[in-house]
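Hi C.,

You asked whether I'd gotten around to modeling the 148-residue construct. I have! Everything is below, sequence then structure, no commentary in between.
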Amino acid sequence: MSIFKWGKEKREKEFLQQTQQMASKVLELIKEKTGKDFEDTTEMERQITAVFVFGMANGLAMDIKHTPLEVETGMIKILISIFKYSPKQASDFIKDMITSLQTKNKNDTKHAIIHRGLDGYYSYQNSKFEQLGDNIINIINRLSRSRY
């Protein structure tokens, strides 16, 4: 194995670990604010949260100079391991999120949530967890039937 490949694998592993930590923190904050475990959330709430975490992962990727492909690969793993999507669902979902980013249609809901997730990344980095929790709950309240 070349040194370059080892370096890439290490970077991917670190990105995945950091993204998993962010996703876990977001789910923890949702539970604190709503009293709901992940298993008790609706599919809509899960999708909103996954799109938000994708935005956070993109913020992390910008900070550590990861490529879009590395973000895609890492997020597919997150969607499978944390959000419990099948590999096909995760792949389709990530493609849909990427399309939302590429269209740059600011009226697109996913595009807006991704950018709120990007803001959430900076809240996370600055340990502003109350602000981070309020951000995701505000989105869930606006877009789902749930009210917290």
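If it helps when you're writing up: The chain has a mean pLDDT of 89.

Thanks,
B.
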